[in-house]
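4.2 Preliminary Data

To establish feasibility before requesting continued support, the project team ran the inverse folding procedure on a target of 164 residues. The structure was first converted into the token representation described in Section 3, and no sequence information of any kind was made available to the design step. The complete token record follows.
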């Protein structure tokens, strides 16, 4: 579940935030590294699961027995394993922008964490100007740090039980 490319990016940022507080003389270098992590998180690979896992998992009937602890017994064989993103399921349909999507809470949440650490360390507002996400022809989307946070807030307000 946590083996997608974006987890390496986000998880690597935690130490940079801590190191920047302990060794401020290196702030410029930490910001450079954080910028590279964010740049990679804006690419297609950061959302590869959302962009390739459409509908129910076609392999859900062949999961290994080890997955039984993750799936309710009465739904075994007819339920996706946690981590299968299922872009395109009803009632939402296919939504190629992982930030605007009704689902993908974890994607935008962890991306906001990465952007927030960078904002904490840097003294500029670079990522609060428009930048492109995914960059895959028609599947390119423009966002800003504060716009992602506002969008997620609006999703929560629209569905207090959870925006998934």
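Position-by-position output of the design step:
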């Amino acid at each position: 579940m946590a083996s997608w490319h974006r987890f390496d990016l986000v998880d690597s940022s935690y130490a940079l935030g801590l190191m920047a507080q302990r060794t401020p003389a290196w702030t410029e270098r930490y910001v450079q590294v954080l910028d590279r992590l964010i740049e990679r998180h804006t690419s297609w690979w950061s959302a590869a699961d959302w962009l390739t896992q459409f509908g129910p998992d076609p392999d859900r009937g062949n999961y290994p027995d080890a997955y039984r602890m993750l799936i309710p017994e009465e739904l075994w064989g007819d339920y996706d394993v946690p981590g299968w993103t299922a872009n395109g399921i009803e009632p939402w349909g296919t939504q190629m922008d992982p930030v605007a999507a009704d689902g993908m809470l974890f994607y935008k949440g962890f991306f906001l964490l990465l952007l927030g650490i960078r904002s904490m360390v840097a003294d500029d507002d670079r990522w609060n100007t428009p930048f492109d996400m995914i960059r895959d022809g028609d599947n390119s989307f423009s966002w800003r740090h504060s716009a992602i946070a506002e969008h997620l807030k609006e999703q929560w307000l629209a569905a207090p039980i959870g925006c998934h």
